């Protein structure tokens, strides 16, 4: 395996949620370099192609959560949506990525925080929960047609190498016969209505959102979690502003 690791963050919402696209570009570049090395060294086509280990990834602001002081993050909804975009990237690039490890798991830049009263599930816990539960099986190509964000990015070079659609999407077909589509509406202020092709029958809907992108679960109450609903699969679906929506239905 070839190793990559990357942490991203920004105090501004849109640069924060588009930053994980830097990881996608890093995977694309690394994959090309693997191919180039195989070509230049005459590696036989039937020899197993190395995959990529994204050995560390997460949202981390080292100023907000200084390492020497424990690196304990207070994650927001914006950070949760950034994590969801990371996870979409790993699904989209599953051909190349053999392993992807979030850093860390508990307390240090983590989705779980321990206190004297128990465990707090931070905002970033919830996209990890949905993806680990449902986004399994085979990756399905998702073709998205919508407007794009064209503002500032962090890192600055992201805007020059990646399109940044308002709807960031990945899809899978599970071994259980269910189709799963994860859609992050990164827009802070605008719901986006879209037709979802391929839907059959009733759709289970799982949504992560809150009143605003700065909502957190670290102020004594859970402001960010998962809500469940259903959709009849007819017509168009409205993806709520600053949200992750996972649609799940039995594929025909």
UniProtKB/TrEMBL annotation:
GO biological process, one term: L-arabinose metabolic process
Pfam hit, one: Alpha-L-AF_C
GO molecular function, one term: alpha-L-arabinofuranosidase activity
Pathway it works in: Glycan metabolism; L-arabinan degradation
Signal sequence, renumbered to the chain: none
Segments forming domain Alpha-L-arabinofuranosidase C-terminal: 55-243
InterPro entries: Alpha-L-AF_C, GH, Glyco_hydro_b
Reported function: Alpha-L-arabinofuranosidase involved in the degradation of arabinoxylan, a major component of plant hemicellulose. Acts only on small linear 1,5-alpha-linked L-arabinofuranosyl oligosaccharides.
PANTHER family in UniProt: ALPHA-L-ARABINOFURANOSIDASE C, ALPHA-L-ARABINOFURANOSIDASE C-RELATED
Name of protein: Alpha-L-arabinofuranosidase C-terminal domain-containing protein
Origin species: Aspergillus sclerotialis
């Amino acid at each position: 395996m070839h190793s990559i690791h990357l942490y991203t963050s920004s105090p501004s919402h849109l640069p924060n949620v588009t930053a994980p696209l830097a990881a996608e570009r890093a995977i694309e570049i690394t994959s090309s370099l693997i191919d180039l090395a195989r070509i230049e060294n005459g590696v036989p086509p039937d020899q197993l192609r190395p995959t990529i280990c994204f050995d560390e990834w997460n949202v981390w602001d080292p100023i907000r959560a200084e390492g020497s002081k424990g690196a304990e993050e207070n994650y927001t909804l914006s950070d949760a949506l950034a994590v969801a975009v990371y996870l979409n990237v790993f699904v989209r690039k599953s051909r190349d990525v053999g392993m992807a490890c979030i850093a860390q798991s508990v307390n240090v830049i983590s989705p779980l925080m321990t206190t004297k009263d128990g465990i707090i599930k931070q905002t970033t816990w919830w996209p990890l929960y949905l993806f680990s539960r449902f986004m399994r099986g085979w990756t399905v190509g998702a073709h998205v047609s919508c407007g794009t964000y064209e503002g500032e990015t962090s890192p600055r070079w992201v805007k020059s190498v990646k399109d940044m659609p308002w709807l960031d999407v990945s899809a899978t077909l599970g071994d259980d016969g269910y189709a799963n589509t994860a859609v992050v509406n990164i827009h802070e202020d605008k719901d986006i209505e879209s037709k979802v092709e391929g839907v059959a029958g009733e759709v289970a809907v799982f949504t992560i959102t809150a009143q605003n992108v700065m909502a957190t679960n670290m102020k004594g109450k859970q402001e960010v979690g998962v809500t469940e609903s259903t959709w009849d699969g007819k017509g168009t679906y409205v993806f709520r502003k600053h949200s992750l929506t996972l649609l799940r239905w039995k594929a025909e």
